[in-house]
Structure formats: C-alpha cells, structure tokens
Amino acid sequence: MSKTDVVLGVDIGGTNTAMGYVDRNGTLAASASIPTEAHRPAQEFFERFHRQAELLFSKIQDTHNLIGVGLGAPNANYYKGTIEQPPNLSWDFVDVVGTLKHWYTIPVVLTNDANAAALGEMLFGAAKGMRDFIVMTLGTGVGSGIVSNGEMIYGHDGFAGEIGHTIVDYNGRPCGCGRRGCLETYASANGIRRTVDELIRTTAEPSELRGIKFDDLTSKQIFESAQRGDKLALDAFDLTGKYLGMKLADSVAHTSPEAIIFFGGLALAGDYIFKPTKKYLEDYLLNIYKNKVRIVPSGLPPGNAAILGAAALIWNELI
Amino acid sequence: MSKTDVVLGVDIGGTNTAMGYVDRNGTLAASASIPTEAHRPAQEFFERFHRQAELLFSKIQDTHNLIGVGLGAPNANYYKGTIEQPPNLSWDFVDVVGTLKHWYTIPVVLTNDANAAALGEMLFGAAKGMRDFIVMTLGTGVGSGIVSNGEMIYGHDGFAGEIGHTIVDYNGRPCGCGRRGCLETYASANGIRRTVDELIRTTAEPSELRGIKFDDLTSKQIFESAQRGDKLALDAFDLTGKYLGMKLADSVAHTSPEAIIFFGGLALAGDYIFKPTKKYLEDYLLNIYKNKVRIVPSGLPPGNAAILGAAALIWNELI
Lengths: 319, 319
Known about the structure:
homodimer, about 325 residues, Nucleotidyltransferase, domain 5, 9 helices, about 35% helix
C-alpha cells in the first residue's frame, strides 16, 4: 500500500505551539501542542518542538510520508526564514528555517501567521478557487494576508500585508507599534474593549458593561452584552465595523479583491461585526467597487485553522 | 534581412491619442498623434485611429513586423477590454478590444493609463529588474499601478490600483468621484492649486501667488514661485508631500514595494515634491518598513512615456 503524503504544519504562538500532519486535502492525520515557553532560549524550544514532532510522526509513519514543513509565526519573514522582534515572544531574532534544516532535508518554509491563514483559506477554506482576496485576522491584534493573481503578496522585503497598521486617525489611539491610530487599535479584541471604555466615559448610555473594570473586560463579554441587546455594546460593534469598513475601502482600492475573509476571535461575533463592516465598507467604497466585494467568515475549523494555514503554506510550494 | 518585431502602443487621452510602433527594447520606430474628438461617437474615432495606424505602419513595414497592439485609456478594464464611463471622454461604454479585433488578428490588450505607465517603467524605465513597486501618476488626477511578484495587480474585476481614491480626510475636499478627501484632491496638479488657495485664504503669508485668480492659477506657476523661494508656494509643496507621504505609508503596509515611482506633471517639480513626500513617508511608516522604500522619478522619456507604457503592456503579454 502506498503511503499518504503529508506536511507538518506548525503555528508558533506566544503561549502555545500547535503542530499537525496534514494531507493534500486538509485532513489532519495527527496533531499535538506544546507550551512555547518563549522566555527560554529559542534553541531549547526548537529541540523540544522537534522531539514532539518526531514522537507524533512515529504514530503515523507506517501509513504516511512526510514531504515538507510549513510554519506560521508572528513577525516571520518568508524570504529569510526568520522571526524578527516578534511582539509576544522574547526571542529577538531567530533563524527558524536554518535551525530546522539541521533536522529536515525536506523543504521548510516560514511565514507570518496572517499570511499562513490566507493560504489556509485558499487551499482548504473560504477562498477556495479565488485568485484575489484578503484575509483579516481580528484577534488580540489585527493581521492581514493579501493574495492577488493567485499569489501571496510578500512584498520586496517579505513583510507585506500589515493592514492592521494602516492609520484610521493620525491623532488617534496609541498603538503598540509606537504610532497613533492604527486600525489594530480599533478593530482588534483589545480595540473593541477600548471603544467600550470610550463610550462609557463619553456618553450617558446605560449599559451592563459599566459595572466591569477595564482590566476585567473581555471582547467576549461585549459580544454577550450585544446579544442581550445592550445598546452601548451594539454601538461599540457599530463603531468597530465603521473603522474597519473605512480602512478596508482603502484596501479594496489597492488590490480589488473578490472577498475579504474575517478570521480570529472578533470574527466569531458574526453579524454583530460583519453587518456594520459591510455597511460602512459600501458607504466608503469608490463607485466602481460598490456591491462587488463579499465579506465572509473563515472556512477553516477554528481549533485547527492555524495548523491548516501553516500546512497550506508548504503545500502551496509543493503542488 | 529579417524584420524587427514591433508592437503598436496607443495612449487614448481626453484631448489627443498618441500611437507608436515600439520594439522589444523600447525604441520607437514611428509615432503619430490624432485628436481624440471624444464628443463624437467612439466608432468614428476607432476608424480614424485605424487609418492613421495603417498609414504610419506603411512607412516601416518593409523592415518591421507587427505582432501586437497595446492600449492605455482612462477607466479601461484589462479583463473585459472595455472603457467604462471614462471621466474625460463622453463615451459611456466602449468595447475597445472587440472593435479592434475587426482589423487585427494579432493580440490586442487594453488597460488603464496608470497600469500602462507601471508596465512601461518595468520594461523600459525606472523599475527595470524590480518585482515589487508602485507607480503614482501625479497629473490632473492621481492614478496608480501596483506591481507585486513581478505581476501587474488587476484585482478581481480589473480595476485594482486606485490609490488616488484612498482617503486622506473623511471630511476633506469634495472629489470628482462624489466622495470627500481622496488623495487625488490633494496630490494632483489641481490638488496643489487648491492647497495654495486654502493657504491664501487661511494664512497671512505674503506670496506672489496672491495676485493670481484661482481659475488662472497653474501648478507650473506654483512650481516657479517655489523656485524663487516663495514661502507660501513652498508650504503648498510641503503639504502636498505630507498628504502623499501619509497615504503612501498605508500603501507600503499593503504591498511593501522596493520603490514608488512618480510619473506625470507634478513629478516634474523634482525635489520640491520628492523631498517632503519622502520625509513624511518615513515619519508615518510602520517601523519594519522604514528606510527601505525609495521614491524615484519616472525613467521614461516624458514625450513618449504613455506610448511606451501601452507598448510595454502588450510586450509583457508576448514575452
């Protein structure tokens, strides 16, 4: 019996690193997760990672053949195979592909997590068959992956696709990047918390969210309040959709995508975020783009989306 | 003796239409220009155009072989081969490629003038050898052409690359597109006239430009005043560069180009526009992009740039 080809998809996160062996159809043959322990040296992490990956593969090696490794990580560079000053990891600069090449003779490719998500959607998810689309990862921060002409846009330096750091308001909220008013400060899980906080401070609107301290407030609570009809929570979603729609109108004017796919925690709020974003996007779009761009949710299973994205990265190179 | 392969490059403008036979190296074998007369039916125009093109080719046909036709026009659609509601032409909808196919059995391709300019820079001008760059056409309006991974970005609908219609200020100047605050209302020849007008009305700065009525004011006069050290004219260039630099920082966050190439009338002001744009671009760029993106002038001869761009469009399909 011939073995099934699989790739190893790896998502390196600030807290945990998830890995899984994925075949050409996006089926997961085996998966595991280890703590990243990013406060410890990167070399230690990669040794732990490799042991776990080998152990996991030993369970399926009789029926599967490993042909590549794809990794997604914050601030990863596709061209160099490196992670550079990642926001949630203490590692300053890590030659990821160089390190893994000590163990693997098969192709090893790295990109940032949002680009991996975009490739995952293209191969296995909501962007199947699309050649021009944008994936927005609306999580703790806001990432993006842009595909045009069926190809990932990496840009000259490998860092293209930072729509989360286009600017909504030049005098706006301080951003972790050191500037002000980035989309990320409005359209992320943390951004909607800040919007609720602003609405509490600047309006008299009664809200069940007024009883919660800022540090205790979560985007999930805002979503649940919105579901119960809390006007202030609904207003926060409306404003979040407005900022997102306004800036996505600029993005459409760059690459004119068929669809924009929302991925990540905030996207799970469904219509509460999709409806206002769509409305304001249409309001702000240049005429020629109106009523052409769909906004759709991720088509990847939430639990394994990041692994499938990293696997898609390497499948995309191999097929 | 074998004949030299040439393509016919055509730039359809609001007033004149320029055409020329161009070889693989960007050498112009013959060129001509006819009035567009866009108030008359499009069919008449194409018949006049075809007669002129045939006449012109008769002079070089003993030594040249025609292998394709490339056209650039406002609001042209690459996929459909059509012009749709062009801003400076009275034609509502014209099937350009369909019309020319009555006369030509060789490949005929159409795109908008800014995309043609970008392809011209890639094949014959300042973007030779580049795979990731943006061309900004700073003329009466502001157009743009975006190249990533060595390919023109046309987008899902063929209308990608309208950076001139990304928004500087949502409450800003009315734009011809019906919205407010588009980059085009600031960074075009007309935009800098409006900036001078605003400075005259809102500051006490003495200026030789105060003596000129708005309708008589030209961007060339503003340039000449700047050259003579007129503070208000210099301030107008500084503001124009600021708006341009701010928005181009957003563009870099999309496609991370190696260079941004300025093309068109306003770019002829040289350092008066390049220096402030570069300064503000760097000020507004996300850290990872700083000091990486060059801003350079067009490398095409101004008189024939549009013809060479249209020729590059079809050469790019043939080679």
